[in-house]
Design a protein that fits this description.
Distance between the termini: 15 Å
Structural class: mainly alpha
Low-confidence stretches: none
Strand content: under 5%
Number of strands: 0
Mean pLDDT: 82
Helix content: over 70%
Pfam families: DUF212
Number of helices: 5
Order of helices and strands: HHHHH
Protein name: Divergent PAP2 family protein
Shape: elongated
Number of domains: 1
Largest sheet: none
Keywords: Membrane, Transmembrane, Transmembrane helix
Length: 153
């Protein structure tokens, strides 16, 4: 397998795994399902692209088109993770709370109300800026370690 892809995937895997102990330290609750969820600290999106970009920079050099592509792609992914996806998550929180508001409003009316239960929308979609930075730092470290280990072979 391509070492860059392997290191990026490994970084994503470990970043997802880190979410569980970090959540425990913050809340004192074990939540293994975090491994399969988006959002949270650290951003696995940022970790993946940062580790790949770091690996490419060290392996091929900063002046190559490979690095340029990886760097710009990484910036777009990280911007999207904390921008558009985070806003979508915050909007989803409001939409999910509308159901409760509608139920309260209809309890006080005499008209017929047929309740249809939609699936609850996923609320943790994006990242706070510090989660993106945390993922990027984790990714740089992972990319550096991956490069050093591949250099020894």
């Amino acid at each position: 397998m391509n070492r860059g892809i392997f290191i990026a995937l490994l970084s994503i895997f470990f970043a997802q795994g880190l979410k569980i102990p970090l959540h425990y330290l913050k809340t004192r609750k074990v939540k293994p399902a975090l491994f399969f969820q988006t959002g949270g600290m650290p951003s696995s999106h940022s970790a993946g692209v940062a580790s790949l970009t770091t690996f490419v920079a060290l392996k091929r050099g900063l002046s190559t088109i490979d690095f340029a592509l990886s760097f710009i792609f990484g910036l777009i992914v990280m911007y999207d993770a904390q921008g558009i996806r985070r806003q979508t998550g915050e909007l989803t929180l409001k939409v999910n709370s509308l159901d409760e508001l509608v139920n309260k409003a209809h309890r006080h009316e005499s008209m017929e109300f047929e309740e249809k239960q939609p699936e609850r929308l996923k609320e943790m979609l994006g990242h706070k800026p510090e989660e993106v930075v945390g993922g990027a730092v984790f990714g740089v470290v992972t990319g550096l370690i991956g490069y050093l280990l591949s250099k020894k072979r």
